[in-house]
Amino acid sequence: MAKKVRIPTPLRKLTNNEELVEVNAGTIGDAIVELQSRYPGIKDRLIDETGAIRRFVNVYVNEEDIRFLENQKTALKDGDEISIIPAIAGG
Amino acid sequence: MRALKCRECGREYPLAATHVCEFDFGPLEVVYDYDRIKKSLSRSAILSRSQNMWRYRELLPVANEPTVGTQVGFTPLVRADRLAKALGIREAWVKNDTVNYPTLSFKDRVVSVALSRARELGFTTVACASTGNLANSVAANAAAAGLKAYVFIPADLEQGKIVNSLIYGAQVIGIRGHYDEVNRLCAEIAGKYGWAFVNVNMRPYYAEGSKSMGFEIIEQLGWRIPKHTVVCMASGSLLTKIQKSYQEMTKLGLVPESEYHIYGAQATGCSPISTAQKAGLDFFKPVKPNTIAKSLAIGTPADGFYALKVMKETGGAAEDVSDDEVREGIKLLAETEGIFAETAGGVTVGVAKKLIASGKIPAKDSVVLCVTGNGLKTLDAVNGHAGRPREIKPSLREFETILHNESATAA
Fold it and tell me: What are phi and psi of B290, to 5 degrees?
């Protein structure tokens, strides 16, 4: 079984409106590379010029922010769910 | 208003219900035609209008007359001499949004804009992710406007904040998790359902409502920008909008250009922005919140970068206080000025005290404290810390015994 990536609305133009796509990568960094090979342009939306995840992009693995894990090196296992979410204002 | 514009890359978007740039996820912000506004907005025009936040209507992002929250704002700016003395500063003012209409917090400002705009865009269901005050305000204002409301909150919020959303008939969903988790879920729900989420897809409009607090401070001070302003920070949005309000009033020639400093206040148990500011960083590290100041408990503050930038640009600073200091701040404000603030207000007072004591805010100057919400909503936080009433029989003798003991203790 692969890992599932939930695609946020602003990126769905790149994924032909797919909300949920599957990847086989072993880490978050590799998952982004894999997404880029299938949906060209997606990497630039997520990664800045220094190679870091853009500051207004939050990435979660099974509901945990990857900044509390190992960022792009965070390991993925089968069945994991990855969410990419824009930062939200306060409440 | 002219368009939405990405704060990161400057790309422009139409004035729709959308909040992030498709290219870099940067937040979108409303841009205005200031040359045009300058023609209709003067001090005398403002003074001729009703005393509510809409007297600055040209600088708020609605296309037509507002239809929701038309009575919101113009809360008192209180000259706080007794508080100033206790804080050790020459002069202090409290911008008292504990009595904002109708739900007793500054959130009524942002919600009236967001819901007025949501109606203009044709929405009939509104929603929000909230630490409490926003939920209260969305629930109440949606009820009055006949809109359907869904509010999403952390399930462990103060009872007062929960009841204050339920009573208006809103659909209240308690999430077992902290605010950042509520936010994440709401981002996913907002992407799936076509609702006006006030702090998600309506955020560019919503956030602008906060500027009205700054406009009012300027007007109520006699058309001048305060030299020092202390603002509590959750996502950091209010702090950035206070600066924007000062900038816009200056740009429009309504106040002379002057030097000002903006300071951010957080609770130590959730202080990603103040920690970064004190370390001299321009980025923050997310945290997992643990504080009684639940209305400020956002571990991944969306406007944290911009809040840091504002403090840097204006020569301000940030500070944070412990839960005990938050309670002391609440008590100090209540005992000196008769204003009962919620925990966020305790944070603002506690931080102001620290900044004055350390000399970052000079004792010879004047400071404005932005107090954003009412203490009646967070009774849990101070219950047991404010003393207890003493019970007696309806007997004069018993009363006089207490009185005698009291004066003996006082002596």
Answer: -150, 85
